[in-house]
Design brief:
This protein is of the alpha+beta class. It folds into 2 domains: about 5-165, Methylamine Dehydrogenase, Chain H; about 215-309, Tetratricopeptide repeat domain (Serine Threonine Protein Phosphatase 5, Tetratricopeptide repeat, Alpha Horseshoe). Helices cover about 25% and strands about 35% of the residues. The chain has 6 helices and 20 strands. The strands form 5 sheets. Strands 1-2-3-4-5-8-9 form a 7-stranded antiparallel sheet, with no helix packed on it. Strand 11 and strand 12 form a beta hairpin. The radius of gyration is 26 Å and the shape is elongated. The chain starts with 6 loop residues before the first strand and ends with a helix.
Length: about 300
């Protein structure tokens, strides 16, 4: 829950998402616990050098308030994305000094005791914290390292990483924890959400397989279509089942892809029609494929079909 009004705290103030604590020369974003008791404030700024954002030195700071009173202060290299629970447990993403893909996820208790310090060989994107302070997640951006594009799930009470995975549904905008049912919700735009169990099982796999074609790119649709085609061919499936593949391939074209990829799509469609014995349609798509990329690999078959027609 974010602050949306201005009120006085120990002679200083909080306005919107920002906190000003004059005696600490402190101003920056904040997060308030759902019950309103705790406020976490952080600043990715070095007051000595007066430099914020990307830098090689000069620690940023964080402050935790309980009922309007400062109960702890701390320093991290570049603290960001703070969250605080109803019990005062809080998390931060440290974007770290210097260049390169690296970051650290932290969790602390109300005594500033470190519960989690998890280093990643990728930059952190966002995070989430349960209202009771028992569970947390963080999500990384892409990288070539093993931590790239990963969702990490932590048990803060046990001070451990429980699991990590590359979420099939992509980067979530936010997270919700159902600690009774032991379910993590990944939240997206337009009210979409997908569930993971607290032990790492993707609970909405079947629904995602049906819905994902509405959200992925044309290139991803092509990959989905080719995988489905390969599956049908491996099981010698009825030719009528290839209609779904053709539909996916045509949707990929509608999404917009490069000319070489368009050629590959038309080749796929032409090969399906050829397999069905619909040679006139096969020729139509093979001709488009060759016009887009003469090396697409169907010229001989196209010439053969034209001679037979």
């Amino acid at each position: 829950m974010r602050l949306s009004h201005i009120f006085k705290i120990i002679g200083d103030f909080i306005s919107g998402d920002f906190v000003s604590i004059d005696k600490l020369y402190f101003f920056g974003p904040s997060h308030r616990s759902e019950n309103g008791r705790f406020i976490l404030k952080w600043s990715d700024y070095d007051p000595k050098s007066r430099i914020g954002g990307p830098r090689k030195k000069g620690y940023g700071r964080y402050v935790l308030l309980d009922g309007g009173k400062i109960i702890l202060q701390g320093k991290l290299e570049r603290p960001n994305n703070g969250k605080v629970s109803n019990q005062g447990i809080f998390i931060l993403n440290d974007w770290m000094f210097g260049e390169g893909l690296k970051s650290t996820f932290y969790a602390f208790d109300t005594k500033n005791k470190r519960l989690i310090q998890h280093k990643c060989d990728a930059n952190l994107y966002n995070n989430g914290l349960s209202n009771d302070g028992q569970y947390a997640v963080c999500q990384t951006f892409y990288s070539d390292g093993e931590d790239g594009n990963m969702l990490f799930f932590f048990n803060l009470r046990e001070k451990r990483l429980v699991w990590k995975c590359e979420p099939k549904t992509g980067w979530a905008k936010d997270y919700r924890f159902d600690t009774v049912q032991q379910v993590l919700y990944l939240l997206y735009d337009n009210g979409r959400s997908y569930r993971y169990s607290f032990d790492g099982n993707f609970l909405d796999e079947e629904r995602w397989e049906k819905e994902r074609i509405n959200f992925v790119s044309g290139y991803e649709l092509l990959s989905i279509a080719e995988a489905k085609r390969q599956q049908l061919e491996s099981t010698n499936a009825d030719l009528s089942l290839y209609d779904e593949v053709i539909g996916l391939l045509k949707r990929a074209l509608d999404k917009g892809v490069s000319e070489n990829t368009q050629a590959r799509i038309h080749r796929n469609i032409g090969e399906i029609y050829y397999k069905r014995g619909q040679n006139s349609k096969a020729i139509e798509h093979f001709e488009i494929a060759v016009s887009l990329n003469p090396k697409v690999g169907v010229k001989r078959l196209l010439d053969k079909l034209k001679m037979e027609s």
